[in-house]
Structure formats: C-alpha cells, structure tokens
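Need residues for this backbone.
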C-alpha cells in the first residue's frame, strides 16, 4: 500500500460538509479568484455553475507530467499519482477538513506531499525556499495540517511563459496551521452548521446570493432611512463620481502616451513599459439583421442569460 493510500478516508465525505484546501485561502480572504461567500454558495448548493476554464483544464491535463518532472528536479526515487476527486480524500484533524493531493514523492529526505501548479504570473514566484504566492502557501499548509506531523511538501511550479520549472520545499508552519484551523473552524460553525450567510462583499458570489434571496421586485420605491441607507447612497454616488474622474484622467494619459509613442512600438522605464501595436479591427455580426432576415438561424444560435435585477444610480436633479 502506497504512502497516500494509507492516509485516505475509508469512504467519501459529503462535500457540502467538508472544506478542501483550495477553499481555505478563499475563506481567509487570500484567494484572487474566490470569496468566502463563493465557498458558502457552493457548499449550500446555490452555485452549481461549471467552473472549468481553459486554464484549469490545462493544469489538469499537464498535472501528471509535471508531477514526474518535479520528481526528477528533486531527485525523487519514488512517485505516487494524486487521488482523483471522485475517490475518498485525506481527512484532517477536524471532521470538516479534507483534501485530494496532486501526488507524493520520496527522495533522500523521505516522503513529501506534492503540489503541482502552472502559472502565467512568473513575478509571483520568488527564489526563496517558500516564496510562493500567499494563496498557494495557505493551500499547502492546509494540506500539511491533514498529514502526519513533520511531513513537508514539494511544490512544483511550471511557468509556461518563461518555460521554466521551479521547485520549493515547504515545511509545516504549526503556528499558522493552528490559527488557520481555528479561524476556518469558526467560519464553518457560523456559516455551515448554523447556516448563516457570510457578510455581503463586492464579489460576484454576493451578487448571486442577493439575486437568489430577492429575485423579484415586490415593493414600491421608498424613502431611505436617515442612517445607514442614506450613507450608502452618498458613498456610492461619491465613488461613481471618482470613477468617472479617474476614467477621464486615464483617457487623457492614454492619449498623451499614444503621442509619446508616435510611430514606435512603445516606450519603457523602471515602472513598466507601454506598447502601441497595430490591432486588427474586430468583426461583429449585425444581430438585428440576423434576427429579421434569418429568424430560424437566430432561434438556433441565440442564448439567453439568467434574469437578474439591475442596480443603477440616478443622481438627484
């Protein structure tokens, strides 16, 4: 029996009652892709949209090859493939903890958890032993918290734009793990056990939750209360005005930079570079003509988005 096989659950856990490693950074506010509300929506069965993208599919297809490449980079003598999501995962010290590893490998330092990543953001990956993006570091520490004490991880990061493979040996951070498990455990109790929705934030998941909770307009317009609601409207109006001013300033700076580039490809300095390259004009279908002259084709190809309530700001006159 292999290293990972000895750690697997005997039966699959209900994913609506368990938190995985990729959800941990979202709950802690570290994920650039998902919010705590997004995790809650998925666990409540309120967001069943397919999250597969070209980026995630690329990572899934390349994972096994990159695992063995990582093993070669760290002189591993044994390699184990990961546990598929369809099989029971590895449980943690709390009943709500579970994860499915990308693999494991053994070298002169013993068995390691293997975590495989592909990333187009080469600047996020440093040269130090644990200089990986914070959301990935949190994910790895969550996994290590589920493994026998002292187990370390090898992270293999393939950077396709640089065509470079980086490896990092991550040691368990017990202090961080203790805080993480306590914090996520309290979140789990408040929002999964008690069923309370997380605080509304600026995420798309929050918009979907509010659309789910208030799908229809049932009441007429009313006067805002003198406290929080009026403050919200005032702050929203102020932010909209700031955005408009910033967009105007951005457009002015963009035109000044176009003038500076002139006939050249662009200009650069320590803060970054500006390019001004030719781009072919986009081709778009005349949808009104298609609908009028080819109704059968229009019926076959049209797609309707979900109904939603549209929030708009109307300045006072």
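Answer:
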């Amino acid at each position: 029996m292999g290293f990972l096989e000895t750690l697997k659950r005997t039966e699959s856990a209900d994913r609506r009652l368990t938190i995985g490693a990729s959800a941990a950074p979202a709950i802690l506010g570290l994920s650039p892709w998902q919010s705590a509300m997004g995790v809650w929506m998925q666990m409540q069965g309120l967001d069943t949209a397919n999250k597969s993208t070209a980026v995630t599919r690329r990572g899934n297809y390349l994972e096994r090859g990159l695992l063995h490449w990582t093993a070669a980079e760290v002189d591993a003598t044994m390699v184990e493939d990961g546990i598929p999501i369809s099989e029971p995962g590895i449980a943690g010290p709390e009943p709500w903890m579970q994860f499915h590893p990308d693999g494991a490998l053994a070298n002169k330092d013993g068995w390691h958890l293997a975590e495989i990543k592909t990333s187009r953001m080469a600047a996020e990956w440093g040269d130090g032993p644990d200089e990986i993006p914070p959301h990935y570091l949190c994910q790895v520490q969550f996994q290590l918290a589920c493994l026998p004490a002292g187990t370390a991880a090898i992270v293999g990061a393939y950077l396709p734009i640089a065509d470079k493979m980086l490896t990092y040996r991550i040691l368990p951070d017990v202090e961080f793990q203790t805080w993480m498990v306590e914090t996520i455990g309290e979140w789990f109790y408040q929002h999964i056990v008690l069923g309370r929705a997380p605080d509304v934030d600026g995420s798309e998941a929050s918009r979907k939750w509010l659309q789910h909770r208030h799908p229809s307009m049932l009441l007429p317009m009313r006067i805002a209360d003198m406290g929080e609601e009026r403050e919200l409207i005032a702050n929203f109006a102020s932010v909209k005005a700031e955005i408009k001013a910033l967009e105007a300033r951005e457009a002015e700076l963009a035109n000044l930079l176009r003038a500076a580039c002139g006939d050249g490809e662009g200009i650069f300095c320590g803060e970054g570079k500006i390019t001004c390259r030719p781009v072919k004009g986009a081709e778009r279908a005349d949808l009104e003509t298609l609908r009028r002259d080819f109704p059968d084709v229009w019926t076959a190809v049209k797609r309707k988005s979900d109904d939603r309530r549209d929030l708009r700001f109307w300045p006072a006159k």
